[in-house]
Design goal:
155 residues, 41% strand, 3-stranded antiparallel β-sheet, 12 strands, mainly beta, 0% helix
């Protein structure tokens, strides 16, 4: 008789589910943390997708706002700090602070970008972590949200 086990590690809480051999509803063992919520994956052209408008989502901690979204990092502009293939969980309700990463749309650019929010002489800038790319002043850019969590592949 074959039994399958499924494990899901979600940041600081562990939820384990064991599929029953008789095919009934799995028995869940919860760490006692508040339940995770699903947030949608957006695209860099339309980052703020809503639940139900995309077929793909990811579980996020319950402390993230309902407007939160996830994006897959597709370029090297923030390597090595945020490698290509990572997933960022973005919360539009968080306020940007110097040193935090944000998702922003620069004027005239059809795609949003992931940059580190910084202050230079009191003026806000968007700075990629990779020094091969240039920083841009925040002038006219719209911050869509602050990166709350980073999920990085181990291999």
């Amino acid at each position: 008789e074959h039994q399958s086990y499924h494990n899901l590690l979600l940041l600081d809480s562990v939820i384990l589910a064991r599929q029953m051999p008789n095919g009934k509803t799995p028995v869940k063992f919860d760490s006692g943390a508040a339940p995770a919520r699903q947030i949608p994956f957006g695209t860099w052209r339309e980052p703020t997708a809503k639940v139900g408008t995309t077929t793909e989502g990811i579980l996020a901690p319950p402390n993230m706002s309902p407007e939160s979204f996830a994006l897959r990092v597709e370029d090297d502009s923030n390597e090595p700090r945020i490698p290509r293939g990572s997933v960022v969980l973005v919360d539009p309700k968080m306020k940007p602070e110097a040193g935090r990463f944000v998702v922003a749309r620069l004027p005239g650019d059809p795609e949003a970008s992931l940059k580190q929010y910084s202050l230079v002489g009191g003026k806000p800038f968007l700075r990629p972590a990779n020094p091969q790319y240039a920083a841009a002043p925040l002038d006219g850019a719209k911050i869509l949200g602050v990166v709350a969590y980073l999920l990085t592949p181990l291999a």
